[in-house]
């Protein structure tokens, strides 16, 4: 009894729940500080990443993380969810407002945890197992969640549950081949066509794909995860006049937390094969696929944080930001072209640039390693005709995160120069290290800290990056 009393009094006096992170877990606190330092001293060119505002991060780390709220507003499976209903309804309304959508025509599900499972929810909501999907091939700029498979392996689980046919770029123009897409659609007869990409630098013609969908009576899913921010700011053409369903992640160009939104058409009519009108309300199909089909309790700290980011997306500052994203991306592309880089499709219309390094006799894996060693984050990426995703010829870069830090066009010219220097180092090291990528990485791990060119470039990058504040941190 005495021991119990003393333990009880200790817990009342010094409850562990009141400790700061630094007090409770200095190891994790130290790693977070290490990451903050890395972000401040690095140039981030990964087009699928961004920085959120302090307000977005504050909502993400709030008390809204501690409650289960399974179900939908007004139909929860737990008590005490009155505030959560208000937050979800507000997030839905803000999502529609962000893209100037009428609630009589569009609805939105805000519960999916991220983009890939959101796409899978759409497929399972609208399709039956083994139904057919037509989507952009991964080596030509598509995404794994669109159903990638090789001759010997179903890489994405999507291709195990559904039959997937890829459409591709014209290998001469390196643009989406809409004529070939139509030929494939009429032969394959898909039930759903995906219009979207993760490494395509040009504008997608949603109207052309809508016509192809109509010709084979297929749903049109627009995956705008990369370009949603630019579309919300009316800087790129919108898919909403043409799509049946639109999916976007909420980080990337939207500058929110890692989550996703699924927009679906409501209140319209479709005609069956006999010409009779049938209901075309997709709400129940999508909502039931999300819950209870694929998820249990939604992450309400994320939904709350998304709502904050969506409110920010209606500000004049957000529109100016998206305009700068496009200008900076174009500047980066132009400066790389001046330095004799080859760009897939010859340039860019959006936030990203896809470099083909094959003419420089170097691959994306080696260049990515060198750039990481000098505090520049990029990602290796396949380009048309590539055979390996581990050692591809491409390098994917984007203007989104550094524009959030206030970097302008002139400074993106400096970034292009850093990239050029990094590629030159990679070319030199390749000749010294050995024939295999692992030989290259082993050489870099052993010699990178002493190599004068690597250390000089890293010093220049740190000096450059440290000038620009990191949103949410500084």
UniProtKB/TrEMBL annotation:
<keyword id="KW-0663">Pyridoxal phosphate</keyword>
<comment type="pathway">
    <text>One-carbon metabolism; tetrahydrofolate interconversion.</text>
</comment>
<dbReference type="InterPro" id="IPR015424">
    <property type="entry name" value="PyrdxlP-dep_Trfase"/>
</dbReference>
<protein>
    <recommendedName>
        <fullName>glycine hydroxymethyltransferase</fullName>
        <ecNumber>2.1.2.1</ecNumber>
    </recommendedName>
</protein>
<dbReference type="InterPro" id="IPR015421">
    <property type="entry name" value="PyrdxlP-dep_Trfase_major"/>
</dbReference>
<dbReference type="GO" id="GO:0030170">
    <property type="term" value="F:pyridoxal phosphate binding"/>
</dbReference>
<dbReference type="GO" id="GO:0019264">
    <property type="term" value="P:glycine biosynthetic process from serine"/>
</dbReference>
<dbReference type="GO" id="GO:0005739">
    <property type="term" value="C:mitochondrion"/>
</dbReference>
<dbReference type="Pfam" id="PF00464">
    <property type="entry name" value="SHMT"/>
</dbReference>
<comment type="similarity">
    <text>Belongs to the SHMT family.</text>
</comment>
<dbReference type="GO" id="GO:0046653">
    <property type="term" value="P:tetrahydrofolate metabolic process"/>
</dbReference>
<dbReference type="GO" id="GO:0035999">
    <property type="term" value="P:tetrahydrofolate interconversion"/>
</dbReference>
<dbReference type="InterPro" id="IPR049943">
    <property type="entry name" value="Ser_HO-MeTrfase-like"/>
</dbReference>
<dbReference type="GO" id="GO:0004372">
    <property type="term" value="F:glycine hydroxymethyltransferase activity"/>
</dbReference>
<feature type="modified residue" description="N6-(pyridoxal phosphate)lysine">
    <location>
        <position position="252"/>
    </location>
</feature>
<dbReference type="InterPro" id="IPR039429">
    <property type="entry name" value="SHMT-like_dom"/>
</dbReference>
<feature type="domain" description="Serine hydroxymethyltransferase-like">
    <location>
        <begin position="21"/>
        <end position="419"/>
    </location>
</feature>
<dbReference type="InterPro" id="IPR015422">
    <property type="entry name" value="PyrdxlP-dep_Trfase_small"/>
</dbReference>
<dbReference type="InterPro" id="IPR001085">
    <property type="entry name" value="Ser_HO-MeTrfase"/>
</dbReference>
């Amino acid at each position: 009894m005495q021991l119990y009393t003393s333990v009880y009094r200790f817990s009342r006096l010094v409850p562990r729940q009141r400790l700061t992170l630094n007090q409770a877990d200095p190891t994790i606190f130290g790693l977070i500080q290490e990451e903050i330092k890395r972000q401040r001293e690095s140039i981030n060119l990964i087009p699928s990443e961004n920085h959120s505002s302090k307000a977005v991060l504050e909502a993400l780390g709030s008390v809204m993380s501690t409650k289960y709220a399974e179900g939908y507003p007004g139909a929860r499976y737990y008590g005490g969810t009155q505030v959560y209903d208000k937050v979800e309804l507000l997030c839905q309304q803000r999502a529609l407002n962000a893209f100037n959508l009428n609630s009589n025509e569009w609805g939105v599900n805000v519960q999916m945890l991220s983009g890939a499972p959101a796409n899978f929810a759409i497929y399972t909501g609208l399709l039956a197992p083994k139904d057919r999907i037509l989507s952009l091939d991964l080596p030509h700029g598509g995404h794994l969640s669109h159903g990638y498979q090789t001759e010997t392996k179903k890489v994405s689980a999507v291709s195990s549950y559904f039959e997937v046919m890829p459409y591709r770029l014209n290998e001469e123009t390196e643009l989406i081949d809409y004529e070939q897409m139509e030929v494939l659609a009429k032969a394959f007869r898909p039930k759903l066509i995906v219009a979207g990409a993760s490494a395509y630098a040009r504008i997608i013609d949603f109207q052309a794909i809508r016509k192809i969908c109509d010709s084979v009576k297929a749903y049109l899913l627009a995956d705008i995860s990369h370009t949603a921010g630019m579309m919300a700011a009316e800087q790129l053409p919108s898919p909403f006049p043409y799509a049946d369903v639109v999916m976007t992640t909420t980080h990337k160009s939207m500058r929110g937390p890692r989550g996703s939104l699924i927009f679906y058409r409501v209140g319209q009519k479709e005609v069956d094969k006999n010409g009779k009108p049938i209901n075309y309300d997709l709400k129940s199909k999508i909502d039931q696929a999300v819950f209870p089909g694929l998820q249990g309790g939604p992450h309400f700290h994320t939904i709350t944080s998304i709502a904050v980011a969506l409110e920010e997306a209606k500000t004049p500052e957000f529109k100016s930001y998206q305009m700068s994203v496009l200008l900076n991306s174009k500047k980066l592309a132009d400066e790389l072209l001046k330095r004799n880089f080859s760009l897939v499709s010859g340039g860019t219309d959006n936030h990203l640039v896809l470099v083909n390094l094959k003419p420089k006799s170097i691959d994306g894996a080696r260049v990515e390693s060198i750039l990481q060693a000098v505090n520049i984050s990029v990602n290796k990426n396949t380009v048309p005709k590539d055979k390996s995703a581990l050692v591809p010829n491409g390098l994917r870069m984007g203007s989104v995160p550094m524009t959030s830090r206030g970097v302008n066009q002139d400074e993106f010219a400096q970034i292009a120069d850093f990239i050029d220097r990094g590629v030159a180092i990679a070319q030199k090291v390749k000749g010294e290290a050995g024939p295999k990528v692992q030989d290259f990485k082993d050489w870099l791990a052993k010699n990178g800290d002493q190599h004068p060119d690597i250390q000089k470039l890293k010093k220049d990058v740190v000096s450059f990056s440290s000038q620009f504040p990191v949103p949410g941190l500084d």
